[in-house]
Amino acid sequence: MKILSAAQTRILDEGTIKAQGITSLELMERAATALLNWLLDALHPAADTPFHILCGPGNNGGDGLALARLLHQSGYQPQVWLLPTEKSSADYAANLQRLPTAVPRHELHARRLPTFPAGAVMLDALFGTGLSRPLTGLAAQVVAHLNESQALCIAVDMPSGLLADAPQPADSAVVQAHYTLSFELPKLAFFLPQNAEFVGEWELLSIGLEATVIHKLAVDNCFIEENFLVGRYPKRPKFSHKGTFGHALLLAGSRGKIGAAVLASQACLRGGTGLLTTCIPQVGYDILQATAPEAMCLPDPALGHLSELPDLQPYAAVGIGPGLGQEEASREVLRQLLEAAKVPLVIDADALNLLGANQELLDLLPPDTLLTPHPKEFERLTGEPARDDYHRLEQLRQFARQRRCFCVLKGAYTALATPDGQIYFNSTGNPGMATGGSGDVLTGLLLALRADKRLSACNAALIGLYAHGRAGDLAVQQTGEAGLVAGDIVRFIGPALQELADSLTHIVE
Ligand SMILES: NC(=O)C1=CN([C@@H]2O[C@H](COP(=O)(O)OP(=O)(O)OC[C@H]3O[C@@H](n4cnc5c(N)ncnc54)[C@H](OP(=O)(O)O)[C@@H]3O)[C@@H](O)[C@H]2O)[C@@H](O)CC1
Ligand SMILES: Nc1ncnc2c1ncn2[C@@H]1O[C@H](COP(=O)(O)OP(=O)(O)O)[C@@H](O)[C@H]1O
Ligand SMILES: [K+]
């Protein structure tokens, strides 16, 4: 699913109107109808539910006014609060005129801001994608007032004061919504942790925006849902053998962190690898043999850390990092790996920290290497703290471009940046996965997928991220969020991948 800029949203709006031969007022009516249907379906509001709709001067306010009329027609008694304005949009004016006189309308006034009761449903239709500058004056006061109320706050399209695709100055007034109901496609702002307190839960309401126009819009940010992956994860052929899926090599573990190597090994096995060899310091030998008997175990001569790179000849892909530690000898193993590798690499955890601390190693990264930092590891990689989440995203894009690699930034919406500058946000996963070892599981799974020659680097990464989160979503149904541990994710990798294998075999854009 494409993530459009605010400017592209306007192009889509106009393109839809043209292509479908409708008026902008009709499009607004679709938006208001979709909002009404959501309110009725999601809230099952009692007939006396106090709906308060705050309307700004543009089409966002127009949506609010049209919704007020539809609520009234459905038997509710909404009240409308208008932000005084000198100029308003044509569709705002048209919907103000169409508002039945029985719907109470009030002008917002700085000295007489209304008290919204705790049981009220507030609809924030002040500003949407047309926001052109930070809110000041009365609008900012209204937002602050709204944020203090105990009422349920639902933002129409965008929380007012939030820009769709860029940061706003610190301390700007922004509505803190419980829900944001956006039209058709998500906004970039929804994916960034710094906006979570404003956006709340977000949902997309379909209003029939024109698919042919969407198709033509060039974007560099996408949101990956299951339909995008349909057909990208091949079934296992009937006459396949273990060689079909590749032999993976994992370099992981150090004294006290053998568990990371175990989790990554288990995840690689559940990820469908044909064969797995795990290279581990001696201290981990018995543990790994007992906990991942399907893996072959190659003990390093050193007791507590990896000190030697094995012969790479047999392997289809190599993963390095989980629990590795940052010993000098292990850094040399990493260096030799980067110099020698002719097969896909997956680099995680301490191997990333070693790259960050020894920047010259970054020049050795083979093209299409997959790196999986969390934000702190990513900061060590770049050596430059990000100003904010938007800046970090651009750093990510730049890093993947410059290094010709695939770089993941892990989080609630894990982002994958590709060498051609695209960013894909993953849609699966849950806060139960914020627990030690979840990342090791991801590395093992990605290693298995990179060892499978049938998958491109990009598809392997997208499938791995999606299936990892999906496995977490299946696991959490049994464990609850607090009770989820990384090993639970491993148990559901198989079912998550099977869902993708069973999905239809055509590719849906
Ligand atoms: N395709 C779609 O997605 C559809 C979109 N639809 C809806 O349209 C919405 C976008 O409408 P929109 O373009 O009229 O912009 P909107 O957000 O109402 O605000 C613009 C007004 O606010 C003003 N203004 C701006 N910043 C300000 C500030 N800081 N402080 C004060 N004023 C400020 C600005 O004035 P100006 O910047 O020109 O001075 C202008 O007057 C969209 O979010 C969705 O709800 C649906 O109806 C149908 C399908
Ligand atoms: N709130 C969340 N929602 C969805 N996924 C999450 C959330 N928190 C963490 N995750 C996922 O869990 C994994 C954590 O990885 P990482 O931070 O490397 O953990 P560790 O180093 O302990 O293994 C990542 O894949 C991340 O996307
Ligand atoms: K809004």
UniProtKB/TrEMBL annotation:
<dbReference type="InterPro" id="IPR004443">
    <property type="entry name" value="YjeF_N_dom"/>
</dbReference>
<comment type="subunit">
    <text>Homotetramer.</text>
</comment>
<feature type="binding site">
    <location>
        <position position="260"/>
    </location>
    <ligand>
        <name>(6S)-NADPHX</name>
    </ligand>
</feature>
<comment type="function">
    <text>Bifunctional enzyme that catalyzes the epimerization of the S- and R-forms of NAD(P)HX and the dehydration of the S-form of NAD(P)HX at the expense of ADP, which is converted to AMP. This allows the repair of both epimers of NAD(P)HX, a damaged form of NAD(P)H that is a result of enzymatic or heat-dependent hydration.</text>
</comment>
<feature type="binding site">
    <location>
        <begin position="59"/>
        <end position="63"/>
    </location>
    <ligand>
        <name>(6S)-NADPHX</name>
    </ligand>
</feature>
<feature type="binding site">
    <location>
        <begin position="128"/>
        <end position="134"/>
    </location>
    <ligand>
        <name>(6S)-NADPHX</name>
    </ligand>
</feature>
<comment type="similarity">
    <text>In the C-terminal section; belongs to the NnrD/CARKD family.</text>
</comment>
<dbReference type="InterPro" id="IPR029056">
    <property type="entry name" value="Ribokinase-like"/>
</dbReference>
<dbReference type="InterPro" id="IPR036652">
    <property type="entry name" value="YjeF_N_dom_sf"/>
</dbReference>
<keyword id="KW-0521">NADP</keyword>
<comment type="function">
    <text>Catalyzes the dehydration of the S-form of NAD(P)HX at the expense of ADP, which is converted to AMP. Together with NAD(P)HX epimerase, which catalyzes the epimerization of the S- and R-forms, the enzyme allows the repair of both epimers of NAD(P)HX, a damaged form of NAD(P)H that is a result of enzymatic or heat-dependent hydration.</text>
</comment>
<feature type="binding site">
    <location>
        <position position="60"/>
    </location>
    <ligand>
        <name>K(+)</name>
    </ligand>
</feature>
<dbReference type="Pfam" id="PF01256">
    <property type="entry name" value="Carb_kinase"/>
</dbReference>
<feature type="binding site">
    <location>
        <begin position="410"/>
        <end position="414"/>
    </location>
    <ligand>
        <name>AMP</name>
    </ligand>
</feature>
<dbReference type="InterPro" id="IPR017953">
    <property type="entry name" value="Carbohydrate_kinase_pred_CS"/>
</dbReference>
<keyword id="KW-0067">ATP-binding</keyword>
<feature type="binding site">
    <location>
        <position position="440"/>
    </location>
    <ligand>
        <name>(6S)-NADPHX</name>
    </ligand>
</feature>
<feature type="binding site">
    <location>
        <position position="157"/>
    </location>
    <ligand>
        <name>(6S)-NADPHX</name>
    </ligand>
</feature>
<keyword id="KW-0511">Multifunctional enzyme</keyword>
<comment type="similarity">
    <text>Belongs to the NnrE/AIBP family.</text>
</comment>
<feature type="binding site">
    <location>
        <position position="160"/>
    </location>
    <ligand>
        <name>K(+)</name>
    </ligand>
</feature>
<feature type="binding site">
    <location>
        <position position="374"/>
    </location>
    <ligand>
        <name>(6S)-NADPHX</name>
    </ligand>
</feature>
<keyword id="KW-0547">Nucleotide-binding</keyword>
<feature type="domain" description="YjeF C-terminal">
    <location>
        <begin position="225"/>
        <end position="500"/>
    </location>
</feature>
<dbReference type="InterPro" id="IPR000631">
    <property type="entry name" value="CARKD"/>
</dbReference>
<keyword id="KW-0413">Isomerase</keyword>
<keyword id="KW-0520">NAD</keyword>
<keyword id="KW-0456">Lyase</keyword>
<keyword id="KW-0479">Metal-binding</keyword>
<feature type="binding site">
    <location>
        <position position="124"/>
    </location>
    <ligand>
        <name>K(+)</name>
    </ligand>
</feature>
<feature type="binding site">
    <location>
        <position position="323"/>
    </location>
    <ligand>
        <name>(6S)-NADPHX</name>
    </ligand>
</feature>
<feature type="domain" description="YjeF N-terminal">
    <location>
        <begin position="9"/>
        <end position="215"/>
    </location>
</feature>
<protein>
    <recommendedName>
        <fullName>Bifunctional NAD(P)H-hydrate repair enzyme</fullName>
        <ecNumber>4.2.1.136</ecNumber>
        <ecNumber>5.1.99.6</ecNumber>
    </recommendedName>
</protein>
<dbReference type="InterPro" id="IPR030677">
    <property type="entry name" value="Nnr"/>
</dbReference>
<feature type="binding site">
    <location>
        <position position="439"/>
    </location>
    <ligand>
        <name>AMP</name>
    </ligand>
</feature>
<dbReference type="Pfam" id="PF03853">
    <property type="entry name" value="YjeF_N"/>
</dbReference>
<keyword id="KW-0630">Potassium</keyword>
